[in-house]
Each structure stands twice: as structure tokens, then as C-alpha cells.
Amino acid sequence: MLEVKGCIVKRKNLEDLASERAVLAALCQYGLDCYLEVDFLDADHFTDNINQVIFHCIYKSISENSKVELASILSAANSLGVYESINNKEEISFIRSLFNFPIHKENAKSHAVKIAKLKLARDLKRTLRACEKDLDATTGEEDVMDLISKIETPILNATADVYQSSNNKTEIIGEEIDDYLQYLSENVSDNVGIPTGFPRYDAAIGGGLRRKCVDLIAARPKVGKSMFGDAVAMNVSKQNIPVLMLDTEMSKEDHLNRMLANLSGVDINKISTGKFTENPTDKEKVEKAAQELKDIPYHYISIAGQSFENILALMRKWIYQQVGFDESGVTNDCLIVYDYLKLMGSEGISSSMQEYQVLGFQITQLHNFMVKYDVPCLSFVQLNRDGITRESTDVVSGSDRLIWLCTSFSIFKLKSEEEVAEDGIENGNRKLVPVVGRHGPGLDDGDYISMNMFGNIGKISEGQTRNELHNNARSREEGFEIDAEIDPESDIDSM
Fold first, then answer.
1. Domains parsed from the chain with CATH numbers
2. Could you read off the pLDDT of 135-162 as tens digits, one per residue?
3. Which of 169, 259, 368, 414 has the most neighbouring CB atoms within 10 Å?
């Protein structure tokens, strides 16, 4: 039992009627000035029905008059159609008492915060009950991840909403401009986002992989998109930034073989067959590479056969368990690599949907996830047959929605025989073409980044752009020497 100013009320679980009364009293006495301090509250935060009604009326009164009086509360009640619920001697007396309740304006916010926390606890408790009900319906035929997601997804969504709501305040855009300029001057960098290890690609898309963004790369099968994804993941994780590789096709062992080959320079076939042990030098190189792999935050999971809801749940779980948040609730630096978007089951996908509709659904969900959790994503998509000869935004299924929601769209493909001959075999037989870049300058029409892929050691290197190569060649013909920035090891494609 709890006594509040002469009246006895029953103290229920996860409520504080004294704090509710204190907030209402502060609103009555200080009006708009107080409301601006507790504007994160709404009527649902109050547990007593009458308190909910009074809050509604106070809010309407403030919004219309800025000042709160008994008459304005009753007038608001009449407008809202709740006059009968408070038009009695007991409730009128309670409202009058609010104007005389001893409360300092400065203390109202602490009471409001307590009320908000109690509501969060009630919501979480309600969520747990709903989870329990869902679990009670288990038949034993469900996938294990489906069962786990029945608990994980609602809980993580609830807590994510709390983090997000804490940052939902407007601010004068130039209020902290001096601090921002100082930060920029002290942190000069070529990249706004996370560097991929491919500087020309980073520059073309606007300075690396940015938070809240999905960067797409389209490629035909067997061209090397998975190796490209692995290369980026390796480069980023070497910066001690956690990376999650979501793989739809390859096994963990395939990735391990490729990464060991990449780090050691030992042929991938020797590693996969164990023959590297026959050569002491190779054995030492592979063991050194294995130790390096232990020390980098590269996380892998196969998502083959998983529903899209499960994949989103896996990403949430990884962020909470492996990445974490800073003191302000902002997700720490990380990268998600999704290899690759394709047809898969989902509660939001019907059997009658076309491929482009499915991909549109997936990119929408993926984009919303990255925005909500403030993380970057590099994803891949299948290039249709038109993409063999064309380099435009309409060479993937569902291109309109994909292009609309992605931050950059690039094409990774084989060079034509003419392009190989023109660029020189030493500059590789693959190219990366940034077609769309919301934040970056992209490349000139007809330009591309030369890429060398060494399949035998699982490595991809970035060369010069087509225009750089041709300008350098022309300068040499005219008697000027321009340094080439090609990796000296990038001499031939080995795939």
C-alpha cells in the first residue's frame, strides 16, 4: 500500500503513482516549459486510467494555450470526449490538488525518466509473455533458428527502439560546427567510411563503405565476386574492425583455404590437400597465416537455406554479441558482407512473387536494417546476361528498387579481349565499373578500374583505371614519365 497526499492507493508491480502525480503536477504548474523537458512521455506511460486521461487533457491544453488551468483541462476533456470520466467531485478534487502539489520544475524530468523506465520494463515483460505464447505453439517441426528467433527478434527489436529513440531529437545543424571543423582538421582522411583496401573503388563511391548504407556489386557467376567479398572482408578485419561474412554458397573450409592462401602466398590446392606440409617453407608460411587469422575479427556464417527473417536475426545477434555499442548507444565500427542476394524463403514473400519483387523486398529489408543499426553493408547480386556486354543500372533483376535503395552500384566483370589487349595483360582481365555513387564522383563514361585476380592464391589486386593507363601511355609517347601505381605482383590473372 502507498499513501499519496492523504489518499491510500494500491502499489502495483512496475508502476509509481507518486512519480506519475509529480509529473502531472509539474505540467499543471509550469505548462509548456515543463512539457519540453518531459516530451518523451505520452499517455501510455501512465498506469492509472485517470492519469492517462488527465495527461491527454493537459497536453491538449498546452498545445492550444501553453498555459494549464482547471478550466482548460475540463475544456480539453470535453473536446476529447472524456469529460464524463473526470467530471465528478473526486476527480475534480484530484486535479485541483495537482496545482498545489509541491514539485520543482527541475525535478519533473527525473520522475518522468522513472516512469519511462517502468514502461520499458512492462513492455519487455509483455514481450516475454508473447514469446512464451509463441513457444507454447511449438510442434517440433520448426527449424532451431526459427525457435530461437521467436525470442531474440522481439527482444532485440524492443531494445533497438530504445537506442534509436534516444537520438531522435532535433538540433540546430550548425550548433556544433566549430567542433565538427576541428574534428575534420584533426582527422584528415581519404575515407569517410570504412576503407575496403581498394583506394580507387573507395574514391569512386565517396570514401569507403559508409554507415546506414548498402553498397552493391553485381557480377556473373564464376567471375570472382566471392573472392572480391573475401578480399574486402580481409582488408577490413585487418584494421581490427569486426566483419560478418554471410555466405550463401561456400563452406567455411573453402573460405579458410582461400584466406590461408591469400595471407601465405601458398597455392590454394596445396593447402586444401595438405601438401603444403611437404615443403618446410610452405608449412611455415601457412602456419604464420593461420596465426594471423586467429587475431583478426573475421566472423563467418553460412546462410544457405535460411529464411530472410533468420538472416536478419543473425545480424542483430552478431551486432549485440560481437560488436556492441558506445556510451551513446551508437553501434561500434563494423561491416556486414552479404554474398549474395538471391531467391530465398521469407514470411513476407509469396510463391507468386517474381524474382525482381523478391530482390526488391530483400534490399528494402536490408537497407532498413542498416539504417536502424547504423552499420555499413557490402552486398552482391547476380548480373543478368545483358550485363555481359552492357554496363548500366538495368542489368539486374529488380534494378529500379535496388538502385533506389543502394548507396552505390558497381559491376564486376571480365574485360573483353579488346580491352585486355588495349590495357595490357599485366593489368588483369577483370574490371570494376562504379555505375552509381550517391556520395562519390564515380568514373567517367567508359572508364573502369582494372582488377587482377590470382585464383591460385585467393587474391585480388586493384590496378589503374582505364583512363590512367591510357593517359600514362600517351605521356610516355610524348616523352613524359608517369609512375604506374600497379602492384608489382599483379602480373597475370591466374584464375
1. 2-110 (1.10.860.10), 186-477 (3.40.50.300)
2. 888 888 877 767 777 787 777 666 665 5
3. 259
| Whether the predicted pLDDT of 476 surpasses 80 | no
Its pTM stands at 0.65
Question: Contact 237/470 with Cβ under 8 angstroms?
Answer: no
Which residues make beta-bridge pairs with 451?
Answer: 430, 462
Pick the closest to residue 268 from 285, 280, 244 (CA basis).
285
Of 460 and 172, which is predicted with more confidence?
A: 460
- The confidence band for 348, taking pLDDT boundaries of 50, 70 and 90, is very low
CB 6 within 8 A of CB 81: no
Distance CA 248, CA 240 (A): 25
Close Cβ partners of 339 (under 8 Å, ≥ 6 residues apart): 225, 226, 229, 245, 246, 247, 248, 249, 379, 380
pLDDT value for 161: 58
Alpha helices in 327-380 (DSSP H): 355-373
CA distances for 388 relative to 72, 311, 355, 382, 413, angstroms: 71, 30, 20, 12, 7
C-alpha cell at 431: 574490371
Q: Return d(Cα 118, Cα 126) in angstroms, integer.
A: 12
CA distance 122 to 200: 51
Confidence of residue 7 (pLDDT cuts 50, 70, 90): very low
Taking alpha carbons only, the member of 178, 165, 152 closest to residue 328 is: 165
pLDDT at position 381: 87
> What DSSP character marks residue 67?
S
Considering the chain, what is the average pLDDT of its residues? 83
DSSP 203-243: HHHTSSB-TT-EEEEEE-TTSSHHHHHHHHHHHHHTTT--E
With b for 16 or more beta-carbon neighbours within 10 A and e for fewer, the 290-302 pattern comes to eeebeebbbbbbe
Instruction: Please state at what angle helix 355-373 crosses helix 144-165, rounded to 10 degrees.
Output: 50
222 conformational bin, left if phi > 0, alpha if psi -120 to 50, beta if neither: left
Q: Give the whole-angstrom CA distance, residue 126 versus residue 97.
A: 33
Q: Which residue type occupies 260?
A: L
